[in-house]
Design brief:
It is a single chain. By secondary structure, this protein is an alpha+beta fold. It has a 5-stranded antiparallel β-sheet. The two termini are 22 Å apart.
């Protein structure tokens, strides 16, 4: 099950229409400063695979779309379906919204157990 992105007044219009669906989390792919999630961006019957990367060694944790073999496909998906050029601010919002999902929270706890150095003051989940 994915999460439908909420509407925001200053957010690009595609964000309210795209769904983020969890695909995979591999703790072995992470290190103490970076955490990766593989997700699908979905719109209607179409979807594209991409990775979110979360940076841990800053005061506040933040994420964006990882620039790897999937990035170009994600950027093209947004442009094709929404006639919008993917901005870094869009990536930040998408990754931030994914942080509210159960998949993120469960896997963050797993990450924090293995890499406590930068996670101690980040997110506290009940």
């Amino acid at each position: 099950m994915g999460v439908l992105i909420e509407n925001g007044s200053s957010v690009s219009s595609f964000i309210q229409q795209v769904e983020i669906a969890f695909h995979h989390f591999d703790l072995q792919r992470c290190d103490e400063k970076t955490m990766y999630f593989t997700i699908f961006l979905k719109y209607r019957e179409q979807k594209v695979l991409c990775d979110f990367i979360y940076i841990m060694n800053h005061h506040e944790m933040y994420g964006a779309i990882s620039i790897n073999e999937h990035y170009k496909h994600a950027r093209n998906f947004i442009q094709q379906h929404f006639h919008h050029i993917l901005l870094y601010s869009d990536e930040l919002r998408l990754a931030r919204n994914f942080m509210n999902t159960t998949h993120f929270k469960i896997n963050f706890q797993q990450f924090a157990k293995k890499y406590p150095k930068y996670t101690a003051n980040k997110l506290l989940f009940p």
